[in-house]
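Schema walk-through. Below, the input block comes first and the output block second. Nothing else is stored per chain. Lengths vary across the set, and this one has 67 residues.
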Amino acid sequence: MIVINLDVILAKRKMSLTELSEKVVLTMANLSILKNGKAKAVRFSTLSKICEVLNCQPGDILEYRVD
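--- output ---
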C-alpha cells in the first residue's frame, strides 16, 4: 500500500494546503485528493513541483507500507 504523507510535510513546513496549491498551481480539489490518499496516480511533473516547493524528496511524501 502506498501512503501519502503530504499532510506531515505540510505541517513540518508550516504551510497550508491553500498556499501549496497556489505555489504548485494545482487546484485545491486535486491536492486534497492526493493528500487524503484517494489519488489513483500522480504525474511526475506534479510530484516534482510539490517537492520543489516543499524542499523535500519524493520519498518524504510517498511511503510504501506492507500490511
